[in-house]
Amino acid sequence: xxxxxxxxxxxxxxxxxxxxxxxxxxxxxxxxxxxxxxxxxxxxxxxxxxxxxxxxxxxxxxxxxxxxxxxxxxxxxxxxxxxxxxxxxxxxxxxxxxxxxxxxxxxxxxxxxxxxxxxxxxxxxxxxxxxxxxxxxxxxxxxxxxxxxxxxxxx
Length: 155
Description:
Elements: E1 8-11, H1 19-27, H2 33-57, H3 62-70, E2 85-90, H4 98-110, E3 115-120, H5 128-131, H6 133-154
Parallel strand pairs: 1-2, 2-3
């Protein structure tokens, strides 16, 4: 059976499991400083519970597990090492630090995955398409063409 054409766009991810990043991600839309700081309390308790449980079990935290999984050739049943992937991110992203994305790219590249990357300027978290829609959709179209080419080469 021939695998379907596939391509993966990683838009503004993956982040890391640091508390500060998690708090920022979950409270970015809260405008009131008082409500924002009040939200930190249950979020910090939840983060501490999840991280502590992972530590007690001798496992990776959920974010690290996700990052490891995303760099597997068969992240989905129909993907493989030649499945083209592109990371779209920005150094101005306040939720996911670009260094985390670049580390993930380096790990995937070292594992032999077909990876490309596009750094946008002036766009925040998952807002690259809104900032420069022509460029964003050009990247997606190019990636999809690569996915079709890979599929044809495997047929």
